[in-house]
Protein backbone atom coordinates (compact mmCIF):
# COMPACT_ATOMS: atom_id res chain seq x y z
CA UNK A 1 0.00 0.00 0.00
CA UNK A 2 1.65 3.30 -1.02
CA UNK A 3 2.32 5.79 1.78
CA UNK A 4 1.82 9.04 -0.15
CA UNK A 5 -1.96 8.76 -0.66
CA UNK A 6 -4.36 10.09 1.96
CA UNK A 7 -7.39 7.89 2.60
CA UNK A 8 -10.90 9.16 3.14
CA UNK A 9 -14.41 7.83 3.44
CA UNK A 10 -14.82 4.17 2.55
CA UNK A 11 -11.09 3.67 1.92
CA UNK A 12 -10.32 4.76 5.50
CA UNK A 13 -13.00 2.41 6.86
CA UNK A 14 -11.58 -0.45 4.80
CA UNK A 15 -8.08 0.31 6.08
CA UNK A 16 -9.35 -0.09 9.65
CA UNK A 17 -11.17 -3.29 8.84
CA UNK A 18 -8.19 -4.74 6.98
CA UNK A 19 -5.73 -3.77 9.73
CA UNK A 20 -7.94 -5.44 12.36
CA UNK A 21 -8.36 -8.55 10.19
CA UNK A 22 -4.58 -8.87 9.75
CA UNK A 23 -3.96 -8.39 13.48
CA UNK A 24 -6.58 -11.04 14.32
CA UNK A 25 -5.05 -13.42 11.77
CA UNK A 26 -1.57 -12.84 13.24
CA UNK A 27 -2.82 -13.70 16.71
CA UNK A 28 -4.48 -16.89 15.45
CA UNK A 29 -1.61 -18.12 13.25
CA UNK A 30 1.72 -17.59 14.96
CA UNK A 31 3.68 -19.05 12.04
CA UNK A 32 2.47 -16.35 9.65
CA UNK A 33 2.26 -13.52 12.15
CA UNK A 34 5.11 -11.44 10.70
CA UNK A 35 3.39 -11.04 7.33
CA UNK A 36 0.06 -10.28 9.01
CA UNK A 37 1.52 -7.68 11.39
CA UNK A 38 3.46 -6.12 8.53
CA UNK A 39 0.31 -5.90 6.38
CA UNK A 40 -1.61 -4.39 9.30
CA UNK A 41 1.21 -1.88 9.76
CA UNK A 42 0.91 -0.73 6.14
CA UNK A 43 -2.82 -0.07 6.57
CA UNK A 44 -2.30 1.63 9.92
CA UNK A 45 0.42 3.95 8.64
CA UNK A 46 -1.83 5.07 5.81
CA UNK A 47 -4.79 5.48 8.18
CA UNK A 48 -2.76 7.47 10.71
CA UNK A 49 -1.76 9.90 7.95
CA UNK A 50 -5.42 10.24 7.02
CA UNK A 51 -7.15 10.50 10.41
CA UNK A 52 -7.67 14.03 11.72
CA UNK A 53 -5.14 15.24 14.25
CA UNK A 54 -6.21 14.24 17.76
CA UNK A 55 -8.57 11.49 16.58
CA UNK A 56 -6.09 8.62 16.13
CA UNK A 57 -6.79 6.85 19.43
CA UNK A 58 -10.55 7.10 18.93
CA UNK A 59 -10.17 5.74 15.41
CA UNK A 60 -8.13 2.78 16.70
CA UNK A 61 -10.65 2.12 19.45
CA UNK A 62 -13.50 2.10 16.93
CA UNK A 63 -11.84 -0.91 15.27
CA UNK A 64 -10.88 -2.61 18.53
CA UNK A 65 -7.16 -2.05 17.95
CA UNK A 66 -5.01 -1.26 20.98
CA UNK A 67 -2.60 1.66 20.59
CA UNK A 68 0.35 -0.54 21.57
CA UNK A 69 -0.61 -3.14 18.97
CA UNK A 70 -0.96 -0.46 16.30
CA UNK A 71 2.44 1.00 17.19
CA UNK A 72 4.04 -2.42 17.08
CA UNK A 73 2.50 -3.21 13.67
CA UNK A 74 3.69 0.09 12.23
CA UNK A 75 7.19 -0.51 13.62
CA UNK A 76 7.22 -4.03 12.14
CA UNK A 77 6.18 -2.63 8.76
CA UNK A 78 9.14 -0.23 8.91
CA UNK A 79 11.62 -2.76 10.34
CA UNK A 80 10.75 -6.50 10.29
CA UNK A 81 13.57 -7.15 12.82
CA UNK A 82 11.32 -5.53 15.45
CA UNK A 83 9.16 -8.67 15.48
CA UNK A 84 12.22 -10.86 16.08
CA UNK A 85 13.20 -8.70 19.05
CA UNK A 86 9.64 -8.84 20.43
CA UNK A 87 9.54 -12.62 20.02
CA UNK A 88 12.87 -13.02 21.83
CA UNK A 89 11.69 -10.79 24.67
CA UNK A 90 8.41 -12.69 24.93
CA UNK A 91 10.21 -16.05 25.03
CA UNK A 92 12.48 -14.76 27.83
CA UNK A 93 9.48 -13.40 29.73
CA UNK A 94 7.55 -16.67 29.30
CA UNK A 95 10.49 -18.70 30.58
CA UNK A 96 10.93 -16.39 33.53
CA UNK A 97 7.21 -16.49 34.27
CA UNK A 98 7.20 -20.28 34.14
CA UNK A 99 10.15 -20.40 36.52
CA UNK A 100 8.37 -18.09 38.93
CA UNK A 101 4.94 -19.52 38.28
CA UNK A 102 2.32 -18.34 40.70
CA UNK A 103 -0.19 -20.38 42.56
CA UNK A 104 -3.58 -18.99 41.64
CA UNK A 105 -6.00 -21.66 42.77
CA UNK A 106 -9.49 -20.64 43.90
CA UNK A 107 -8.69 -20.15 47.57
CA UNK A 108 -5.05 -19.09 47.29
CA UNK A 109 -4.13 -15.94 45.38
CA UNK A 110 -0.68 -15.60 46.95
CA UNK A 111 2.06 -15.55 44.30
CA UNK A 112 5.17 -17.62 44.78
CA UNK A 113 7.37 -14.92 43.20
CA UNK A 114 6.69 -11.54 41.57
CA UNK A 115 6.73 -11.15 37.81
CA UNK A 116 9.53 -8.81 36.73
CA UNK A 117 10.83 -7.55 33.41
CA UNK A 118 14.44 -8.21 32.47
CA UNK A 119 16.91 -5.45 33.29
CA UNK A 120 19.28 -5.82 30.35
CA UNK A 121 21.21 -2.65 31.18
CA UNK A 122 21.75 -3.56 34.86
CA UNK A 123 25.21 -4.88 35.65
CA UNK A 124 24.98 -5.42 39.43
CA UNK A 125 22.55 -7.06 41.82
CA UNK A 126 21.98 -3.65 43.42
CA UNK A 127 20.99 -2.12 40.07
CA UNK A 128 18.57 -5.00 39.40
CA UNK A 129 17.13 -4.63 42.91
CA UNK A 130 16.68 -0.87 42.44
CA UNK A 131 14.94 -1.41 39.09
CA UNK A 132 12.67 -4.03 40.67
CA UNK A 133 11.92 -1.76 43.61
CA UNK A 134 11.13 1.33 41.52
CA UNK A 135 8.99 -0.75 39.16
CA UNK A 136 6.84 -2.14 41.96
CA UNK A 137 6.63 1.15 43.85
CA UNK A 138 5.69 3.01 40.68
CA UNK A 139 2.98 0.46 39.94
CA UNK A 140 1.53 0.78 43.42
CA UNK A 141 1.67 4.59 43.32
CA UNK A 142 -0.17 4.75 40.00
CA UNK A 143 -2.57 1.82 40.45
CA UNK A 144 -5.60 3.77 41.66
CA UNK A 145 -5.44 6.27 38.77
CA UNK A 146 -4.82 3.45 36.28
CA UNK A 147 -7.81 1.47 37.55
CA UNK A 148 -10.03 4.56 37.40
CA UNK A 149 -8.96 5.17 33.79
CA UNK A 150 -9.37 1.52 32.76
CA UNK A 151 -12.39 0.45 34.83
CA UNK A 152 -14.21 3.60 35.91
CA UNK A 153 -15.81 3.18 39.35
CA UNK A 154 -13.74 0.14 40.28
CA UNK A 155 -14.39 0.81 43.99
CA UNK A 156 -17.93 -0.50 43.43
CA UNK A 157 -16.76 -3.89 42.11
CA UNK A 158 -17.40 -6.95 44.24
CA UNK A 159 -14.39 -8.24 46.16
CA UNK A 160 -13.87 -11.90 46.95
CA UNK A 161 -12.69 -13.00 50.38
CA UNK A 162 -9.44 -14.25 48.84
CA UNK A 163 -8.82 -10.89 47.16
CA UNK A 164 -9.44 -8.98 50.41
CA UNK A 165 -7.08 -11.33 52.28
CA UNK A 166 -4.41 -10.84 49.62
CA UNK A 167 -4.82 -7.04 49.78
CA UNK A 168 -4.42 -7.06 53.57
CA UNK A 169 -1.39 -9.33 53.37
CA UNK A 170 0.18 -7.13 50.68
CA UNK A 171 -0.47 -3.97 52.74
CA UNK A 172 1.22 -5.54 55.76
CA UNK A 173 4.21 -6.54 53.65
CA UNK A 174 4.41 -3.05 52.09
CA UNK A 175 4.46 -1.52 55.60
CA UNK A 176 7.35 -3.83 56.51
CA UNK A 177 9.19 -2.92 53.28
CA UNK A 178 8.58 0.78 53.89
CA UNK A 179 10.13 0.44 57.33
CA UNK A 180 13.17 -1.35 55.92
CA UNK A 181 13.59 1.05 52.97
CA UNK A 182 13.32 4.22 55.07
CA UNK A 183 15.66 3.05 57.86
CA UNK A 184 18.77 5.16 57.96
CA UNK A 185 17.72 7.51 55.16
CA UNK A 186 17.59 11.29 55.45
CA UNK A 187 14.27 12.93 54.64
Structural notes for this entry:
By secondary structure, the protein is an all-alpha fold. The chain folds into two domains: 9-87; 104-182, no CATH class. The chain is built from seven helices and no strands. Helix 2 (33-50) crosses helix 4 (67-78). The longest helix has 27 residues, at 125-151. The protein is extended and about 60 Å long. Residues 102-107 have low confidence and may be disordered.
What can be said about this structure in brief?
The protein is mostly helical and 187 residues long.
Sequence-ordered SSE layout with sheet pairings:
Elements: H1 9-28, H2 33-50, H3 56-62, H4 67-78, H5 81-99, H6 125-151, H7 161-182
Helix pairs in contact: 1-2, 2-4
Amino acid sequence: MPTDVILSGQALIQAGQQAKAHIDAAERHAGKSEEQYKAAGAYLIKAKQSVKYGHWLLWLKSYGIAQQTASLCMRIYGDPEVLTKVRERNVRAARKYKEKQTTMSHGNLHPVAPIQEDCDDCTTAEQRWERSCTSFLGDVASMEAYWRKEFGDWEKFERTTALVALAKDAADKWKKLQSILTKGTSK
